[in-house]
Design goal:
alpha+beta
């Protein structure tokens, strides 16, 4: 009995250690990404992803004005590829204004990107009131491309593209950040970053956690024969007694 318990305990310990390593190696939302992923809708898909592509959808919403200030609000495109969240009083409203209209449009033509290569559609966000408080923007990217490094934006009024950074708590296949303006947005790679849509990248470069998860499964499966042997040994002892 003692000889069988020791390997089982070791296997359980290895599984627990591997699980801990996997948990610390991924950002929140990793295991959600193991479910089937909705195909990304491209304006202009890469050749390898053109088959069966559906055009992206737009978003439109009216943020209510309550007591002279805009209410907290979240709007998104109909396909969920862009989500925008606004805090209370995010827009400067005019006297008597009852709502602020926000539109999100996927763009086929846009100001040439400078300093980065887009890895998502470029979206144009417009509103009929100035944004005065930072908003949270989240973009989805395709599972068939490497995860974009940062989210980039350009004010609708013009100017250079800006690197807006990227949150470390975005869900799988999304990239998010805060922005102090509305205008053009896209996820992408900085020039010379070495990313390629044709490269082999699983879930945005998270290949190691997937391997660790597979190891956990193998370790647990390896413990099944030991459990069966232990059960059989116990039954034999019961019969002898």
């Amino acid at each position: 009995m003692t000889r069988l318990r020791l390997p089982a305990a070791l296997l359980l310990g290895l599984a627990a250690a591997a699980y801990a390593v996997a948990a610390w190696s991924v950002r929140p939302g990793f295991y959600d990404g193991l479910a089937p992923v909705t195909p990304y809708r491209w304006v202009s898909p890469p050749p390898s992803l053109a088959a069966g592509n559906q055009p992206p959808l737009r978003g439109h919403a009216v943020i209510p004005v309550v007591g002279g200030t805009t209410a907290p609000f979240t709007t998104y495109t109909s396909d969920g590829q862009v989500i925008l969240s606004f805090v209370p009083g995010a827009f400067q409203v005019s006297p008597g204004q009852t709502g602020v209209t926000v539109r999100i449009e996927p763009e086929a033509t846009y100001p040439p990107p400078t300093g980065f290569t887009p890895a998502t559609n470029v979206y144009l966000v417009t509103a009929d009131a100035p944004l005065v408080k930072a908003a949270l923007i989240q973009l989805t990217y395709a599972s068939g491309v490497a995860a974009p490094s940062y989210l980039f934006g350009m004010p609708q009024s013009g100017g250079p593209w800006k690197n807006l950074g990227a949150s470390q708590v975005s869900q799988q296949y999304t990239i998010s950040t805060r922005t102090s303006f509305i205008g053009y947005f896209a996820g992408g790679y900085t020039k010379g970053g070495g990313h390629s849509a044709g490269g082999v990248t699983v879930g945005g470069g998270q290949f190691l956690p997937i391997v660790i998860a597979a190891v956990i499964v193998l370790v647990l499966l390896a413990g099944i024969p030991l459990a069966l042997m232990r059960r059989g040994r116990g039954e034999e002892e019961d019969e002898e007694t």
